[in-house]
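ok so for the tutorial part 2 we go from a plain amino acid sequence to predicted structure tokens. step 1 is just haveing the sequence, like this:
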Amino acid sequence: MISKSEHILVVDDEPGICKLLDRYLSQQGYRVSTAGDGLGMLKILETDIADLVILDLILPGEDGLTLTRRLQEDFGIPVIILTQKSDMVDRVVGLEMGADDYVPKPFNVRELHARVKSVLRRVNKNAGQQALLERETQTPAQDMIFIFEGWRLDTAKRALTTPDGDDIALTKGEFDLLSVFLTHPNRLLDRDILTSQVHGREWTPFDRGIDVQIGRLRRKLRGNVEQSEFIKTVRGAGYMFIPNVETESEN
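step 2 — the prediction. this is what the tokens look like for a chain of 251 residues:
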């Protein structure tokens, strides 16, 4: 038996689909609201925020793709988009705009429910990981000097020094990313956590910003071609900073 208090908002201009999902998801223990267009959706969200929105892309008035972006930018609510079976372009664009998943019409309600559970589980997991990381950060980063494999990162001066004493210039994003890794060595950090910690936003499936920054940071930390990688890729899971890290307090 799954205990749920999540509020799911179904936005579709087909009353039959709204009625079907209202009945089925309510039977699974969710609290369900329905709306026929974007205005109805926003009216509900003004007074009753949703944990997840199931959103049809073809709606009267404001289209589903635009609403997907608004849900991400204004509310930060996870979205599952409903698309026509042949609308591959809309699926891709929807994911690029921040949708968490998609289900083509006609759909099986059990498959849709499985995707709802998967998205909510991922969102709750990320929230828990974020809270844990924040609790584990006991000393403010700006007061620390991190030491690893002869390298030193002085966070007060924002200065990275090689074992030979050479200074390495870091962009703000690279500095923030390295600080997160050094604060949590030998911990698996997924892209959701890294994007939240470094950029202050949610990661989306087409967001490669963290991967690009990690590639640049790796090149700067590679003192010579024989040096092993400090940042390990865990396929399908995220990244891990593997050297032992020591700290000194800034005096």
